[in-house]
Amino acid sequence: MKTLGLFVFIDALGWEVLRRHPEFLSDIAPDRRPLETILGYSSACDPSIISGLTPSGHKLWSSYYFVPGRRSPFDWVRWLGFLPERLTERARVRHYLSKLVKKVCGITGYFQLYNVPFRLLPIFHYAEWKRIWVPGGLPEGTSIFDMLQAAGKSWYVHDSNKGDEGKLADLEASLGEGKISLAYISLGKLDALMHAEGTQTPKVGDLLKWYDGRIRHLVELAKKNYGDVRLYVFTDHGMHDIRQGWDLQKEIETLGLKFGTDYAAFYDSTMGRFWCLNAEACRKLEVFLGNHPAGRILPDDELDELGVYFPDAQYGDLIFLMNPGLQIAPSFMGRKAIKGMHGFHPSDPDSKAMICSNRPLPQGLQKIQQIFGLMCESTGIEPPAGRAVP
Ligand SMILES: [Zn+2]
Question: Which of 257, 305, 354, 381 to pair with 344, CA 20 to 30 A apart?
């Protein structure tokens, strides 16, 4: 009997979102539960799911990180800083410039310039330089794709350049051939919808209904060629409705420190990451951020427990995390606060991820990185030592 592991990832379909739509796949994937997410964004969660490692293990956490001296691969981008801001702050212009920078630098991973100021880009490096969805894609450690390749097995994985419809059509074609032992598809429409309109829009229910129909169709197609179809529908994080934007950058700029000389900072949507370039700057930042009403500095032992501690401070000496519902705006990710955002503390209920399946879920399955173990199990691969498995 041929077995297929059918792994359907729906971005931002967190436990709280699913709880409001209990009818979603309820008959064909009845076993369901919340999963603990990983602090950060998809750039941290996706590589963890496909490797069973935390960001401390595979080294991918946030997108950009500070590189002292002139080691940045974006040094040449300096000239873009001379373009008028009126032009470069337009989303469409930045979209095309992102494509240009990606091509010139030879980046194969997911890449966006977001709202990073061009004058600052030449002091940063980008973590997800390589496409993670292929063998050899992780900076450290191996992913399920390395293992499938070593075992001589075939698989399907989505083409990140395509939208949900294109990815689903590709997968349907692949299932029709019946040659793969694992399918991994990442669907992004729900995440985009809730970023733009929040979690309460009725469009969420409509979209889940559409996903429900498409996933049922995938299972029916798969059953024509496989005796055992193991369906897992899951996500990496939930979504929070944003109450308020918070101009953390402006506050930091009042401390009398010089960016690039005293400190460097990268403002993600929910985290400010700071590199201290001298002791005085470090003290000032610690005092200011240590008594802040909108968030807190995460201590090293807590970062370590969350799997995102980097002894070399690759992603920052000080990690300041916003309280749930408060978004840094403007940030280096976007100019304005939006309706929905994720990337708050994993302990917040809206951060919870989820998984549902047509098979009984193992008791020990509690964290998103353990999904890796399910992929190993359904393809008969022995997970390497030290990986998260249920
Ligand atoms: Zn998102």
Answer: 257
